[in-house]
Amino acid sequence: MKGEEFSALVNYLQEVPAVNVFGSGIFENGLWWVKFSIDIKHIYAWHVVQEIGHVVNYVSLEERLPTVFYPVSPPPYINGGPDEFLSWVIESEDADFTPDDMKEWLSGRLPQPVSDLKAWSTSNEEDWKEV
Question: What is the pLDDT of residue 131?
Answer without folding.
Answer: 39
